[in-house]
Amino acid sequence: MSTGKDYEIFVQNLQQALINSEELMSQKNVEIERNKKIKDNYGIVREFDLYWEYELAGVTYKTIIECKDYASRVSIDRIDGLIGKIRDIPDLKPVFATKTGYQSGAELKAKNNKVDLLIVREQRDDDWKDKEGNPLIREVNINMQIMSSARITNFKPFIDGDWLKENSDINLDSQLVSSGLNNEIFIEDIERGETYSLLELASKLEKISSAVGENKHSEVFKDAFLINNGLKLKLCKYEVDYSISEPINQPIKMDFSKELVGVIEYLHKDSTTAVFKDKIVKDWK
User: Fold this and answer.
1) Which InterPro entries match (predicted)?
2) pLDDT tens, 145-178?
């Protein structure tokens, strides 16, 4: 952040995210204004870095934040300046925000005049440690392995020739190669009470052998049928060729620090809030 304007926008964005996260406040569509001009009781126009207001139970609540992007701790003179600036403007809640902190005299002065002091800043390395100094989870690395499904390359069913002679006038060989999509050819295994397509058979084959490369399998039936396009034939057995490709390794890195937009320290209540891109974490650490 190179200018005071940049810091004002930074504080505004974090504070707006906090307001939007509160259900009651979000319903009121509260919007933070920058460079708000307000006339005091003597008609003198005062300008404040940030300002917002909302009404609750007939009472209007007004808040201002003075944002100072200082390289050193804020002195008591700056707090005196804010107190004098709001003295003749009734019903304003004053807040002071900086990145670096406050001198002890400034903190005491603010406390005695009900000025809330904030440290609003970007993250630091020590934000990823708890109060005892133990590291918090900042980054998660996952090596995901995606297993390829078995793919049937050749399916050869063997049809009961005696059954064909008894049930059909068509002279078919006892060995039949059927054609069709894998989800159009079914095996009805009456003995086991199962009916499944060749597409589902591929999943079964993975459990039999998941070896990468070309595989073979055969199965013999006592009472089963091959069903395809309305044709139902007595099935003795099948032989199948299938292949399984190499698994795909997919590393996944989750860096939570990249999601942390900023941190707000509330000196008046000794608490810290972390503002992430998609959530607010109060009492951080």
Assistant:
1) Restrct_endonuc-II-like
2) 887 788 999 999 999 988 888 886 654 544 444 4
Strand, coil or helix: what is 202?
helix
pLDDT tens digits for 224-268?
999 987 788 999 999 999 999 988 888 999 899 999 999 999 998
CA-CA distance, 254 to 137, in Å (whole number)?
A: 10
Same domain, 40 and 102: yes
Q: How many domains does the chain have?
A: 2
The per-residue pLDDT for 179 is 53
CA pair distance 3, 275, nearest whole angstrom:
22
CATH classification at residue 31: 3.40.1350.10
Give the contacts of 192 (CB within 8 A, at least 6 positions apart). none
* Residues 83, 168 within the same domain: no
Q: Give the residue-averaged pLDDT of 83-96.
A: 94
- Per 3-state DSSP, the chain is made up of helix, strand and coil in percentages (nearest 5) of 25, 45, 35
CA distance 82 to 75: 12
Bridge pairing between strands 116-121 and 260-266 = antiparallel
Q: Give the strands of the sheet with 280-281, arranged side by side.
A: 33-39, 45-56, 59-68, 92-98, 116-121, 260-266, 271-276, 280-281
Q: Are residues 216 and 260 in the same domain?
A: no
The whole domain housing 239 covers 148-246
Helices (H), 23-175: 23-27, 76-86, 104-112, 161-167
Q: Do 122 and 19 belong together in one domain?
A: yes
